[in-house]
Amino acid sequence: MKQVLLAIVIATWLLGCSSRAMTTTPRSAIEQLLLSGAVDAALAKLKLPEVAGKKVAVDTANLKAYDVEYVRIATRARLAEMGAILVDEPAEAELIVEVASGGLGLEHKTSVVGLPSLPVPNSPVPTPELAAYRSLEQTGIVKLLVFVHAKGKLIAIRRCYGKYDREESVLFGVRLQGHDDIRAGWEAADRDLAAPPAGSEKP
């Protein structure tokens, strides 16, 4: 009788398991969105009133990081948002803004309650994991250094940190969504698109 009950429990767990399809690109969308979201979060903290109304050239020669193209354009966009007049040639600029990455990567933590996968003697295939509960936490983290100077004179230095998180868990085969900055980000973007243009409201 005990063996029958054990077989029923195991079968229930196996039937209730959920999984996400493997990515068909070299890097998953979740990884890329967590990293770019961390960059956005860091740059949102950047305050440089010194660039307002100034001709600014952005120097990213020392910027080495994942998704370097995104960091470049996001930095230029943030400077323009603060009132900088972007120029391509340093000779035309009043200020030079150098950007470097102190780190841009992904951290993750997994917790499992249940029976872990175990090796089987004389078999290349381990036993399946029988997890009653599994949780996954992923965080994109970045540190950016922004150095502003003019003709060798220091104008400003800013160190900006940012992170972007998502959590999910599975309880007896049921997927539970926890905190998710990615989902919050695209929902906010959808709301912005749906909102009427400023000044279009009827009195």
CATH topology: Double Stranded RNA Binding Domain
- Quick one: how many beta strands? 6
| Radius of gyration of CA atoms, rounded to a whole number | 24 Å
The fraction of residues in strands falls at 35-45%
The CATH class assignment is Alpha Beta
Helix and strand sequence: HHEHEEEEEH
Content-based structural category: alpha/beta
Give the distance, in angstroms, between the N- and C-terminal Cα atoms: 75 Å
Q: What number of structural domains do the residues give? A: 1
How would you state the average pLDDT, rounded? 87
Query: Order of strands in the sheet with the most strands?
Result: 2-1-3-4-5-6
* Sheet of most strands: 6 strands, mixed
Bulk shape: elongated
Share of helical residues: 25-40%
Q: Work out the helix count.
A: 4
The second-level CATH architecture is 2-Layer Sandwich
- Show unreliable segments: 4-9, 11-15
Give your account of this protein's structure:
The model is unreliable at 4-9 and 11-15 (pLDDT under 50). This protein has a six-stranded mixed beta sheet with strand order 2-1-3-4-5-6. The protein has one domain: Double Stranded RNA Binding Domain (2-Layer Sandwich), CATH 3.30.160. The chain starts with a helix and ends in a 9-residue tail after the last helix. By secondary structure, it is an alpha/beta fold. 29% of the residues lie in helices and 37% in strands. It is elongated. Helix 2 (29-44) packs parallel to helix 3 (68-81).
